[in-house]
Design brief:
heterodimer, A: alpha/beta, six-stranded mixed beta sheet, four-stranded antiparallel beta sheet, 9 helices, 10 strands, about 35% helix, globular, B: mainly alpha, about 85% helix
Chain lengths: ~250, ~260
């Protein structure tokens, strides 16, 4: 279980996270929604240890992440898989090398075993072996996302983080990525946090939804509860109303 | 007036802060060279990128520098009837000053800017964050191999610059202007001492660390977007060139 308690973060005197409280149950997908620039990715970066909070706690299975540092934090991160917004594939490595990277860096598996695992993940993402030798620049946006997902999954993480997983993709490809998230979640049973503003499609993958607004969680519950939430700000966001988006 | 003093103070504080940041960054990178995994393959790849790929431009610069120095030196020395000292004049200037400084500036322009852009792009496309979340230290994986490569490659490139420069000087002085080949090399042998060569090596080592440190630091702390990368690249070349010249003065006064 991941528990965020009273998380506060400011940049240049401006409060981005203003006392976030959120619980993400083990084995479930928690979706955090909110308009662009509201601090969703900042929240995610705190949980994966890329940013340190000004105050507050991030408890993962009883361990306070925000107090870990150096090697302890790095070892803790081995339990994570992260799908970054742009994929974050390494430019100088081809698809095979990108997916194999975590295994080559963090395990002593023989090359044959690594190759087998990489090919399994490629097949899982509906990618053929022809893409193995391509560089990230030669891939379409959807392929990049699927390769990045394969890389994030290669070490069979306990916790997955998805930062805007379908932003910039066309609707069919967005649905493919959502389908892959659901499929891998069913197969692996990982705990997940998805950060997105792509509504309403993103609701299909979530077990619970939380809405972030002005640095706080203003609503949290099952997807149906959020869709019928009485708060006008939540309703305005879900319907994509102009007034709210420009506020 | 008060505003001007405040701005000056703020700028001075920023410079001190950045210098401190760079020093911590350097110490952390060098310390990580002694922590496994040692990443020898990455160091070799970076020696190729920073060193081997700079060889042609360094040889060209060295050749023309040696040729110009021979041409200038010949007409100056001729006025005093000392054309025989041309070899020692060319060699001493190259080994003590021109070799380390011009090699440093050329490496900064070619490889330093590329390093800053590469790391800057890795920063803005979250590749450095990706390394971090995979429990791989980005400084150890990206920065440390480049720093070691700079320390190894720049002194070697300087040596190449010196040799090619001396040959360029030979081409102009001996082949074109008729200075005796024997006196060109004999003068060199008599006047160049170990201190000159050691001084050149120390300078090139310091310049190598400076160029790659500035490039890695600026790239690692780049601002958002293409503008951030462009600024980091630009600052790398300018700051490296200024630091090379400043270090050159400090080290020369130390060796004199």
């Amino acid at each position: 279980m991941i528990k965020i308690i009273n998380l506060v973060k400011s940049f240049n005197g401006q409060k981005v996270l203003d006392g976030i409280n959120l619980t993400m149950p083990t084995g479930q997908i928690t979706l955090v929604i909110g308009k662009s620039g509201v601090g969703k990715s900042v929240l995610l970066k705190h949980i994966v240890g890329l940013l340190k909070p000004d105050s507050g706690q991030i408890i993962i299975d009883g361990q306070d992440m925000s107090r870990l540092g150096g090697r302890d934090l790095r070892e803790f991160k081995r339990r994570f898989g992260v799908l970054f917004q742009g994929g974050a594939l390494f430019d100088s490595l081809n698809v095979f090398e990108n997916i194999a990277f975590p295994l080559r860096e963090k395990t002593r598996l023989p090359e044959a075993e690594i190759a087998q695992r990489v090919r399994f993940r490629l097949a899982q993402m509906n990618l053929t072996s022809e893409v193995e030798t391509k560089l990230p620049d030669e891939l379409s946006g959807g392929m990049k996302k699927r390769v990045a997902l394969a890389r994030a999954m290669i070490q069979e993480p306990e916790i997955m983080f998805f930062d805007e997983p379908v932003t910039g993709l066309d609707p069919p490809m967005a649905n493919t990525v959502f389908h892959l998230i659901s499929k891998t979640h069913q197969e692996s049973g990982y705990t997940a946090l998805v950060v997105s503003h792509d509504l309403p499609e993103v609701f299909q993958v979530a077990d619970q939804v939380a809405m972030l607004h002005k640095g706080r969680i203003i609503a949290a519950g099952a997807p149906e509860e959020i869709q019928n939430h009485p708060d006008p700000v939540v309703q305005s966001f879900i319907r994509g109303e102009v007034d709210f988006l420009e506020a | 007036m008060a505003n001007l003093v405040r701005q000056l103070g703020q700028r001075s504080l920023n410079i001190v802060q950045e210098a401190g940041g760079m020093m911590i960054f350097l110490l952390e990178s060098l310390a990580l060279a002694f922590v496994p995994p040692f990443r020898l393959r990455r160091v070799l790849q970076e020696i190729y990128q920073i060193g081997v790929k700079s060889t042609v431009i360094v040889m060209l610069t060295g050749a023309f520098t040696g040729m110009v120095m021979a041409l200038q030196g010949y007409y100056t020395l001729k006025q005093y009837g000392s054309e025989g000292a041309l070899g020692s004049a060319v060699a001493l200037s190259l080994i003590r000053e021109m070799g380390p400084v011009l090699t440093g500036i050329m490496v900064s322009a070619r490889a330093g800017s590329a390093v800053a852009a590469e790391i800057g792009i890795m920063r803005i496309t979250e590749q450095l964050d990706a390394l971090d979340t995979m429990a791989v230290n980005p400084i150890q994986y990206v920065v440390m191999p480049k720093l070691l490569a700079g320390v190894i490659a720049v002194p070697l490139l300087t040596a190449i610059f010196d040799v090619v420069g001396i040959l360029g000087g030979y081409l102009v002085g001996v082949v074109l202007l008729g200075v005796s080949s024997g006196s060109y090399f004999a003068g060199m042998k008599q006047s160049v001492v170990a201190l000159d060569i050691n001084g050149g090596i120390v300078k090139s080592l310091v310049f190598g660390i400076t160029i790659i440190l500035v490039a890695c630091y600026k790239g690692y702390h780049t601002g958002p977007g293409a503008e951030g990368v462009s600024k980091a690249t630009n600052q790398t070349v300018v700051l490296s060139a200024v630091l090379i010249l400043a270090w050159d003065y400090v080290l020369t006064s130390f060796f004199m």
